[in-house]
């Protein structure tokens, strides 16, 4: 009886080890982090992703209101 129990435990252990290794081998490779370019708002100086910025010539802004405020400040 004790011998059977040890054999069953050994078989379960081998099955668990094999299953764990197969899972690790089939796991998807981690995706590399995509780097996002950051720009600085010319009005409030906060950094934001370039894809979310409003652009005027070579300047970037958080939103249209900051662009309008910057235009008002430079016009006077």
Description of the structure:
- The protein has 76 residues and is of the alpha+beta class.
- It has a domain at 38-75.
- It contains two helices and four strands, in the order H-E-E-E-E-H.
- The strands form two sheets. A two-stranded antiparallel ribbon has the order 1-2. It has a two-stranded antiparallel sheet with strand order 3-4.
Placed side by side, the strands forming the largest sheet appear as 1-2
The helicity comes to 40-55%
Shape: rod-shaped
Rg from alpha-carbon coordinates: 30 Å
What average pLDDT do the residues reach?
90
Range of strand content: 15-25%
Q: How many helical elements?
A: 2
Notable traits:
76 residues, alpha+beta, two-stranded antiparallel ribbon, 4 strands, 16% strand
Topology, element by element:
Elements: H1 2-26, E1 38-40, E2 47-49, E3 54-56, E4 59-61, H2 64-75
Antiparallel strand pairs: 1-2, 3-4
Task: Briefly summarize what is shown.
By secondary structure, the chain is an alpha+beta fold.
